[in-house]
């Protein structure tokens, strides 16, 4: 590897940089997947722990309080700190 042309050296350096970036991105994605799996596990637990109509309402409320939508259009997506009108409408119907 002593007499590589400058152009080839440059290309190899570029390749190395790109590989490092790809590795970094892979690490980030792995972490994101891990977080999503954890979140999914938590949400499943909340759901499947529910028994009966009353229990399901409780779980939905809990899910809402945990910061997730329970309304059909955005179900299980993270909610901003402001309330969601669809979710609130659903919660209001609870007693009916
Ligand atoms: Zn909502």
Would you spell out the secondary-structure blueprint of this structure?
Blueprint: H1 6-48, H2 52-65, H3 85-92
Residues 69, 71, 74, 84, 86-87 line the site of zinc ion.
Would you kindly provide a written description of the structure presented here, covering whatever features stand out?
By secondary structure, the protein is mainly α. It has two domains: 1-48; 51-96, no CATH class. The protein has helices spanning 6-48, 52-65, 85-92. The mean pLDDT is 87. The structure holds zinc ion. Zinc ion is lined by residues 69, 71, 74, 84, 86-87. The site of zinc ion has 6 residues, from helix 3.
Output the keywords.
96 residues, binds zinc ion, 3 helices, 68% helix, 2 domains, mainly alpha, single chain
Mean pLDDT: 87
Low-confidence stretches: none
Q: Which descriptor suits the 3D outline?
A: elongated
Summing up helix and strand content along with how strands pair, one would put the structural category as mainly alpha
Total separate domains: 2
Query: Strand-residue fraction?
Result: under 5%
